[in-house]
């Protein structure tokens, strides 16, 4: 395992009445056994393709080839798509500096863009300022009918035509959507096929928010130069204790799910905060929010996820976390960083009135802050789970991704809901299209 998980500071005997009692936790953990057996069965019969992804290698050559095609001759690679079609890719590419403050703007080309939120002004300005001649585009929608993605793709095709680049559309655009199925329309495939744009297949058995380990997430990662095989190998490390038949107490995902559900049921902790201490995990917290919210929020049940980033959110949300409502479980995610970063000049530190900073590094301070936040929350009776990574790389991030996907699936089992559907979201999509049709 690339990380160490501890729930000791979430226990009632350690932090007081707001911690999880031994009886409630043990009962919830025992109930995860059914979920683990189901996961093993679905891996064995291949009915849950997600569980076969960590060991899959036969598709990686195609992913790398597509990534090289996108990189070649491009100053910019633009990914069109929203929700699960985008957040997994963003999470992985951030490992290579994408969307990291400062660093992200100074990365080597091609620049990578994820246009995941539909906004008329920002999209219009982007297309007008983008060098279309040296840009490549990827449109991603599992169903092929996502309204935002279709509008973005149509706008891009029109912009390329207006710029006199129509003949080069098949070389500049790539699509990713599930294969055609009789009786089920796929607008994205129809649109791109009419323009002779090549399409990759989205596995119909892997939902968008669970697709970070599929080509949906690995294609952007490969464009960013990451080792996609290592991502999958890391995911395999998280899945291994499940497949090996380990007892729930030895499966970190089962422990995490049992803790969250026991605290929600017994102590009313219906908000789950994930606070990561690394810029390169900021998108990971957003990915986690979608995964947890869309998978568990059903039938009046669920736990509300909240993402936070340290140390910056110590200056915004921590006051509420410590002194506000006692309705939250906290997971503090830290990365070994002591000794890393610029070393502070002792004379300048003394001049600034902070002599203790002398000869320390920025990493020393961040490491101390992460530890202090977790301990302060616990000392104030707030239940805290800690996850610590010795390193942040492709393997460890792949392991984290699979860990939280498994935790979510197990938590859904404990709640008695389907982790893989999103009926409320689908209802909103239908209404939006109906309103648009009437807006003439």
What does the radius of gyration come to?
Answer: 23 Å
Largest sheet: 5 strands, mixed
Strand content: 5-15%
Strands, count: 10
Which sequence of strands runs across the widest sheet? 1-10-9-7-8
Uncertain segments: none
pLDDT averaged over residues: 96
> Which bin fits the share of residues in helices?
40-55%
- Give the H and E element order: EHHHEHEHEHHEHEHHHEHEHEHHEHH
Q: Compute the separation of the termini in Å.
A: 57 Å
Shape: globular
Alpha-beta content class? alpha/beta
Structure annotation, total helices: 17
If you had to describe this structure to a student in words, what would you say it looks like?
The protein is α/β, with parallel strands linked by helices. It is built from 17 helices and ten strands. It has a five-stranded mixed sheet, with helices on both faces. β2, α4 (87-93) and β3 form a beta-alpha-beta unit. α3 (60-71) crosses α9 (215-223). The chain is globular, with a radius of gyration of 23 Å. The model has no long low-confidence stretch (mean pLDDT 96).
């Amino acid at each position: 395992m690339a990380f160490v998980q501890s729930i000791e500071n979430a226990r009632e005997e350690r932090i007081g009445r707001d911690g999880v009692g031994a009886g409630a936790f043990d009962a919830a953990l025992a109930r995860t056994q059914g979920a683990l057996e189901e996961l093993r069965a679905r891996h064995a019969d291949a009915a849950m393709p997600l569980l076969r992804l960590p060991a899959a290698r036969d598709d990686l050559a195609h992913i790398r080839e597509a990534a090289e095609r996108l990189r070649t001759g491009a100053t910019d690679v633009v990914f069109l798509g929203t929700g699960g079609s985008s957040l997994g890719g963003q999470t992985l590419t951030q490992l290579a500096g994408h969307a990291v403050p400062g660093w992200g703007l100074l990365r080597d080309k091609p620049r990578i863009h994820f246009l995941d939120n539909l906004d008329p002004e920002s999209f219009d300005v982007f297309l007008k300022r983008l060098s279309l001649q040296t840009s490549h585009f990827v449109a991603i929608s599992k169903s092929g009918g996502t309204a935002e993605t279709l509008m973005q793709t149509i706008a891009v095709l029109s912009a390329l035509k207006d710029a006199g680049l129509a003949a080069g559309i098949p070389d500049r655009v790539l699509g990713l959507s599930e294969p055609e199925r009789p009786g089920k329309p796929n607008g994205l495939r129809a649109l791109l096929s009419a323009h002779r744009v090549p399409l990759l297949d989205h596995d119909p058995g892997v939902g968008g928010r669970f697709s970070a380990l599929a080509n949906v997430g690995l294609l952007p990662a490969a464009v960013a130069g990451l080792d996609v095989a290592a991502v999958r190998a890391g995911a395999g490390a998280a899945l291994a204790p499940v497949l090996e038949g380990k007892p729930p107490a030895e499966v970190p995902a089962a422990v995490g799910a049992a803790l969250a559900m026991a605290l929600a049921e017994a102590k009313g902790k219906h908000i789950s905060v994930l606070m990561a201490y690394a810029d390169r995990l900021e998108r990971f917290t957003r990915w986690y929010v979608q995964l947890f919210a869309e998978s568990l929020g059903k039938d009046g049940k669920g736990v509300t996820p909240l993402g936070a980033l340290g140390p910056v959110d110590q200056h915004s949300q921590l006051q509420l976390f410590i002194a506000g409502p006692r309705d939250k479980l906290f997971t503090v995610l830290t990365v070994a960083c002591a000794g890393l970063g610029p070393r502070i000049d002792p004379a300048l530190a003394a001049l600034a009135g902070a002599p203790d900073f002398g000869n320390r590094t920025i990493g020393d301070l961040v490491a101390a802050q992460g530890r202090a936040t977790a301990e302060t929350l616990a000392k104030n009776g707030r239940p805290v789970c800690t996850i610590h990574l010795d390193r942040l790389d492709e393997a460890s991030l792949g392991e984290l991704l699979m860990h939280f996907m498994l935790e979510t699936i197990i938590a859904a089992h404990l709640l008695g809901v389907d982790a893989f559907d999103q009926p409320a979201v689908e209802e909103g999509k239908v209404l939006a299209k109906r309103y648009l049709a009437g807006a003439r």
